[in-house]
Amino acid sequence: MGSAPPDDDTRTAEHRPATRPLAPAGFAELERATAGLQPPFAVVDLAALRANAAHMVRRAGGKPIRLASKSLRCRALIEDVLRMPGFSGILAFTLPEALWLAAEEKGADGVEGEPAGDILVGYPTADVPALRRLASDERAAARIVLMVDSVAHLDLVTEAVGPSGPRVRVCLDLDASLRLLGGRLHLGMRRSPLHAPEQAAELARAVLARPRLKLVGVMSYEGQIAGMGDNQPGAAPARAAVRLMQRISANELRARRAAAIRAVRAVAPLEFVNGGGTGSLESTSAEAAVTELGAGSGIYAPVLFDHYRGFRPLPAAYFALSVVRRPAPGHVTVLGGGWTASGAPGPSRLPVPVHPAGLRLLGTEGAGEVQTPLAGPAADDLRLGDRVWFRHAKAGELCERVDELHLVEGDRIVDVVPTYRGEGHAFL
Fold first, then answer.
1. 204 Cβ partners below 8 Å, 6+ apart?
2. pLDDT (tens digit, 9 = 90+) per residue, 231-246?
3. Strand, helix or coil at 253?
4. Nearest to 274 by CA among 295, 249, 300
5. In this structure, what is the dihedral angle of CA atoms 71, 75, 80, 82, given to the nearest 10 degrees?
6. Which pTM value belongs to this model?
7. Is residue 397 part of a domain?
8. Predicted confidence band at 14 (pLDDT cuts at 50, 70, 90)?
9. C-beta separation of 69 from 414 below 8 A
10. N- or C-end of the chain: fewer Cβ atoms within 10 A?
């Protein structure tokens, strides 16, 4: 299933996606599959999910993909994707989440299975109780890797875990942003202070000086390339500027990342070097210094991934809301809808109504906490109780709004699985 934009949409050919979705829209099938459900609810199209996963593996060019759990936030689907060839290991977002995943991992038969790779916590933690739990659990300590980018992190972890117990595995977070004009112009994520190769090597030596810690990896996430579409709607000069920035940034990072990895490997051996994201799988996998990729958003293919020239995943995750008002001709109101994505506020963070075609949010109200007005020709054909289908702007954040995902194949619900929220967890 997909939601290809209509051929008569207002976008110019210049900034339409270079390729169409892999399959036509199938909302009739979704309607039949979910006829007995009362909105709000969320569905995942398993055929689209599998196609997206396979496409990501092809784009990765033979390097394994570490699955970003925050992009799925559903343990059953994380385990399903990790059973697919080409995926290995988890990129978690908090240490409590990583401890939970390590403890709860199940095999296909519902019993404890073989670990599907290690679990890299993609962001630093200051959670002292969780660090103590990690240090007291030999099995978890053997699988979970903490992210660090400063001596202050090393000191915090060392103090929390104490002098005895299993060694704690750590990974250096190398800043991947583009810095120009002597650092006065910063393009990219503000994540880590480790930018120069010598800074990474210095922190690697600081890790080795602490017997309780073991350096096993280096990570760098080029958000200005992997997370920023190069085919955004809008003015052509703005798209050209994004593409130029991304070319310059990719060339600079390729050389700097290789130099940083050489410098760190001169201090200690590494088990992995992680890089990339859904939007940069091809370019990052081509770097010899990178041994694995990190990605996950392309599995659900939210709205933010509609605007890349090089690939177009199938929308796989949707949510449905009920029409509860008809306030004026050409307008309807649905119950709920304020499922706004994180990031810099703006229209790109709002959910998008995709079926019936021809509905839009109102600029004066947007997506509301309790109700969301919509306008467009399709509104006059909708009755009270009819559904409007939406796509979320970002991937896993949809799961913070629902307790379960209805897994659909064709016109049937084949399973219902809990989200993190449905299992009683809100890690952030």
1. 172, 215, 263, 264, 267, 268
2. 778 888 888 888 888 8
3. helix
4. 295
5. 70
6. 0.89
7. no
8. very low
9. no
10. C
Place of tokens 């994180």: 342
- Mean of per-residue pLDDT scores for the chain: 89
- Is residue 402 situated within a structural domain? no
Where in 25-123 does DSSP place strands (E)? 41-45, 65-68, 87-92, 119-121
Look up residue 403 and give its two tokens.
């307790």
**C-beta separation of 315 from 59 below 8 A:** no
Give the CATH number, domain containing residue 140: 3.20.20.10
Scan for tokens 């600081």, then name that residue. 206
Rounded to whole angstroms, how far apart are CA atoms 191 and 198? Answer: 18
Judged against a pLDDT cut of 50, whether residue 337 lies above it is answered with yes
Other CB atoms within 10 Å distance of the CB of residue 117: 17
Q: Which domain holds residue 91?
A: 46-297
Does residue 212 form part of some domain? yes
Contacts of 274 (CB under 8 A, 6+ apart): 66, 91, 120, 171, 217, 218, 219, 220, 290, 291, 292, 293, 294
Interacting residues of 382 by C-beta distance below 8 A, sequence separation 6+: 323, 326, 332, 356, 388
420: pLDDT strictly greater than 80: yes
**In-domain check, residue 167:** yes
Q: Where are the beta strands (DSSP E) in 276-347?
A: 292-295, 317-328, 331-335
CA angle 404, 407, 412 (to 5 degrees): 130
- Peptide bond before 40: cis, by omega within 30 degrees of 0? yes
* Exposed / middle / buried, residue 364 (Cβ in 10 Å: 0-12, 13-18, 19+): exposed
- How many domains are there within the chain? 1
Beta strands in 122-232 (DSSP E): 144-148, 168-173, 178-180, 185-187, 213-220
